[in-house]
Protein 1
Amino acid sequence: MLVAAVGLSTHPVAAQEEDRPEEESQQAQGGAEAANEELVIQAQEILLQDFGSGLRAVGMALAEENPDIDLKEIWAAAEEAMMNDGSDEGLEFYLASYDADRQQEEVLSFRNELRDAVINGSMSRDEVLQVWLEVMDVRFFHDFRNEPNTEWAQRFIDAVGAGNLAAVTLRLPDAGDVRILTKPEFLRRDLEYLTRDMDLDEARQSRVKNLLETYVTEYERQSVRLQKLIRSVRSNREKKANRARLARAQAGLDEIARTVDLAELRGRIDMGDRAQRGLDRFEGSVQEVQEALWARSLALDESPEEEFDDSQLLQSANQLRADRARMRQSFLDGMKIVLDERRVNVFASRIDRSLLAEARRDGTLGGSGIDLEAALETAVQDDDLKASMQESLASSQLQLIELIKRWTAARIDRELSGLELFIAYREDAAANRERLTQKHAHRARAELNAAIAIRAHLLANHADMTSALAASDQGAADRFEEAVWEQGFKPQMRPRWSEQALRAALACGDLSDEQRDSLQEMQAEVSEQLAALRALAIQDRILTEPKIARAKINAMTDPAKPSSLGLAAWREPGASLFGAIDEQIEGQLGVLMLEASCGERLPRRRGAGVLTGGGARKR
């Protein structure tokens, strides 16, 4: 029937009728095929459930007789083999979400550390839960307003990315990550921004557009080639790992089928009805899972690894590095021909602003997102004072741009050494890997030092400008400082529970005069306390982050050496002090007995009602 259908589809008459609407019978047939496919998927899922139930029961016997068999790996291989549709879509998704997955791994590793701390008795369950909630608070900015009944565990599972955790955001990018090198400095969408307020006629606008298009096209051509080579290496590695994983799973399952006597196991081990039923279902599913594993292995063998010379990868990367400056200069030279001197100056200013904005977006150290010009614009109202401050800021911005260029060069150097290390792991050359790891760590330290230099420059200029403003207008100096801290240290400057709770309490309509006076006094006192704590937390972050980043770099060359930072790498600077104020305000609100009048309006405090002496939940 299938052969006949294929032959009919190539017939001239059939080809002429391809555009005609489908008959009802054809639509019904398509619906039936979809329904059948759904039934097949459901049957496979049921089979996997049966297999997994029995595998857990069998594990009780294997734990004593053959502990080397990895049941988790067998289950993962069975799931991949049974549910795989034969495409590479899963692999492409893996490659696309590679960095996000590694960030999740960092958080999962920390969660496991906390679990081990409870097991070995170094921390109580309540202490661990409090730390975990605290870390999640920093990660997601304490957002209970959206779906307030969502459990923390589910909130963690649904989360994407790193949030605001320094231990994750300061993670060294993986070897093979070349996102800076492969990204053009200018994009097609920048045309409007770069030519804004230039009043270009149609001819000049067209020439500028052509120059930008030429630059982007040439850059993307080399960039895409390099990225394809890297994807090929990762794809080959994943296929190789899959083959090895399937082979181990096949061997383990074959060993179970050969050595485990299910009838004897039923009589020897005291198990409940559920485990007995699991063994019954397992017995009927083993053969089909074995066949699926074998079929998946054959499919991988029919998809051979792509063969290419590793030197092509490094050659392509180094060529792009060399051409990066050439393509940039060619674009700028072309713009100088098209534009007059005034427009060239405007264009150069646009490029500098774009470079500064890009650095603020990419920076991970606290303070790297500071925009002194924007803070000055919002904080200073006197035009003459603002103009004089902007004039002094101009020379500082030129120094900052040079620092950013050095940082970008250091990042690309680190990416290239990472690419060398990436290839060394593929070649499985241990001695070469050690040397290249040291080289990669050295360049990572140079990148970190360049980033620290940018932040130090910003903070020093902020201090000088705040002092200069204070000599003329203390109010402007205070507003400027607050704007800068908001830009560079958002996690430390975010609203705290005590502030939110007091604002919510004061918004209640049924307050007595005495209650309102007490709340206003509490609000003024808390505002003063939090200002001091935020300053301490910011300084703590400034000191701690380089230590965290260096510890991660050191872990590359000496992974067995434990970091001396411990929980400090994860906990928010000043968290215990902020928590003490929240707890104090919660108690004082309770004394004022506001539950009856506005209890529902008060925000829920993180961890409140979650932790008790026995670790049980209440509320």
Note: The two ends are 65 Å apart (CA to CA).
Protein 2
Amino acid sequence: METTSSRIVLTKDLASSLGMTPEGLTKKARREGWKYSIQNGIGRAGKTVSYKLDDLPEEIQKNFLFVEKQRAKDINLNQMPEWQRRKVIDKMYLLDCLEKEFEKLENRRLSKEKIMKLFIESFKKGKISEEILSRNGTFALRTLQEWLRQYKEYKKTNDIDVLAPSYGKKKGIIKLTSSDQDFFIKNYNNPNRLPITTVWTAYKNKCDQEKREPVCYSTATNFIRRIPYIAKVLYREGEETFKKECLPHIHRRTDDLVRNEWITSDGHDLNLYVIDSKGREYRPVIAVWKDIASRIILGYNFNKTENTELIIETLADSIKNYGKPQNIKIDNGKAYKNKQTHINNEKIIGTYKIFGIEAPSFSIPYNPEGKANVESFWNVVDNYFSKIFPTYCGKNKDERPKHLKETIEKLKKEGKMPTIQDLYIEFEKFVKWYNETRVHSAIAMTPKQKWDSYTNEIEKISEDKLIFGTVHRRHATVQRDGILFNGHWYRDAEGKLTREYFKKTRRNEKKKKVVVGIDMHDFSKLFIYTDDDKNELICVAEKRNLSSWKKTNEANNLNELKAIKKEIKTQKEAIKTFAGSKENLKDLKNFLYNTKEDTNIQNKIEKEVKLPKGVL
């Protein structure tokens, strides 16, 4: 290490420290006889004058060293982060004020500790600097003693870093370059969700190729941890998860609602297994309609899958038992939003409009908070209903019982496997307990009590309209054998369908259509409605089975033939009033020829020619 005495100083550096020009310094050196030497390869023409620091006058040495220390202090301060530099400046100001307190005459009889305690009290009251007090807060006696020790060390060494806070010196400073930071951000915030180890390994290999030293794994990990959480969710989990977990929820009040003003629905896979008629186990789906104001369960139903029939039938049961709702808040799934529930391309009226619900409100897709009123209900179902069955399978893999498969096989062998009928029986008990016994925390009473507390009138819907809204609707044309559906012909016993709606049409003539209502659980009959705004019920058409060619079925064929003959006779009787006769043709002739002479001429010709009557 180069000592102060052996240090060589160039003319320009010495002149800059003393505040002189190089020419002025050279004249002063010659005038006072300073020792100097010539440095080759530096300066103009490859030569410059330099001085040995210990050969200079003592006053010049002191001034040069003082200026250098001051410059070093400024450089160190500028290299500090803003928060650390502010701490050092505030500390120096307070310690300068403290030293002045030591020098006061009235404090000479007091100990340093006493003076420091008085100084802290004055500082707390804001007498020294309110700005520093608001920025840093108060400090204890031991802290001030440590600062004073640091201040004395700074005066000896002139090292400003001594006064800098020992904690967090690297706060705000990171070893990673901006390009390295971009590398970690772009590769970690990736939809493929790469782990930190994979990204760091790729970064390490990248540094090896570029022949530079990589940062350690902990530095990279700390940087990734400082990436905002919402940024990680958005770019790693996706926009849907970002909306669900990071965006604020809409909180709605329900105290201003009345019963049947708003109802909501949702489908859910029960966390248990049942067995079907073929001996196969499956997880049943349940659909529930719930009143938002009272929290009462209006209707429910089970099925193997969540489909339109399940939703519509459950809604019809709810309306039948509790009346028509004004508005509905429903899921965005296909079971709730399709051609049967809305007006389809064939202009068939939708179920919601049939039931008097003009504009249903749909939840935001993949946003369960939009149906929080019914979504929270599934937790109650899981805890108080699903878990009482031995075939409970848990909400996820972690909650799944270890011996679930063995339990199901054992129950199937013993014939004790629960069926869908068992679910209906038990769930009916559960709904009664939920509606009439369990006190709901949000309303501080049972849902049934809340429902009965409202006085608004309950609007009912006719049975025919409920059936029309429940059946699967489509257009059809009536033919001579009735209506063809699913390979079978359907006709009504009275023959009203073919009598009033069957007609052979010309090529460009539009065929008269009817609306066919199909009960998806019973294909033995069809409900036939008029194709107009009223959709009145025309008749109920029953399925006609195909006749067999086998001799063993001759008796059945005979019965079917008798039934057809009876149907034809009924049809003829029904249209008998429309029948004409040959006797009416005589009157027609009179009107056709419009004179009695025409008739006389005809009789005369018949006598002369001896032709049979009625030829002309």
Note: Confidence is low (pLDDT under 50) at residues 1-5, 169-173, 550-556.
